[in-house]
Amino acid sequence: MNHNFYIIDDDKGIRKVLKNIIDQYNLGDVVGEAEDGIKAIEEMKVLKPHIVLVDLLLPGMDGIAIVSAIREAGIRTNFIMISQVISKEMVSKAYTKGIEFYIHKPINVIEVVSVIHKVKEKMRMQEVIHSFERAIHSINVLKEYTGEKEIQVVSDKDRIKKILSQLGILGEAGSNDIVEMLLLLLAQDEGTRGRLLTQKISDLYEMLNQRYRDAYGIVMNIAAIEQRIRRAINKALENLANLGIEDYSNDIFVKYSNSLFDFKEIRKQMDYIRNKSNYGGKISVKKFIEGLLVELKIDRENIA
């Protein structure tokens, strides 16, 4: 697959350097470039590039605002942030808004090529997963068409995706990582699973990375896996808080606000959304994963 790139930087020289790297290393085609966010957003809505390299600090509209606007417009693309800024807070905010990787200026050719290859690996992994899902869907449609009857079996993957859908995060990039992590844990016996959940969360990320290597032949970046998962869970926290504000007795809010999160963090997020606080709620990846395992167990027992 030939990937299309879009470059956003107010420095014409930087745009030229990035374009030359993409051309020289046959990474894909640069379909457009811009020096400001307004032009970039309008063009990207039409061009729908696979990968966007965007500067953090731009006149008028910064890179984070551009990422947010494209996400809100429903355009699925992969963002690589480029900047001289080294502030951990700014970098963290950029990841939260939806970037995949961060490249520091001055531009280093090896780093640019490496990061782009990692983004491509992530895209390939998602396509493999989607192709499996499309194949399964096609089989089910064929069975329906031919009138073949069989007992419906709900897989663990379907159960996980149902919960993520209820939380409003099935479309998030990190949802695939959450599904794969849960399937990895469910494949273990109860004793091993319990021991794994007492270990550092970084150990689970490493195991997930190993799963990607073994199952799909893809080497992922552990930091990127962590950021995607945290971004998806943060989105779930935000969605639940909004549900609670609209209807405190909402079934999904009641069901998941305590099992997947610390309820006081949900309350903090609700206060933040209502502008009653300067700080939102915090997440615990481990509590979220443990809570999902409990919900899956309950669902299994109910079906049985």
UniProtKB/TrEMBL annotation:
Modified residues (4-aspartylphosphate): 55
Domain Response regulatory: 4-120
InterPro entries to which the protein is assigned, alphabetical: CheY-like_superfamily, Sig_transdc_resp-reg_receiver, ST_Response_Regulator, YcbB
Signal peptide: none
Keyword terms of this UniProt record: Phosphoprotein
Domain of life: Bacteria
Any Pfam family the entry gives: YcbB
GO biological process: phosphorelay signal transduction system
Summary of the function given for this chain in its UniProt record: May play the central regulatory role in sporulation. It may be an element of the effector pathway responsible for the activation of sporulation genes in response to nutritional stress. Spo0A may act in concert with spo0H (a sigma factor) to control the expression of some genes that are critical to the sporulation process.
Protein name: Stage 0 sporulation protein A homolog
Gene: cheY_2
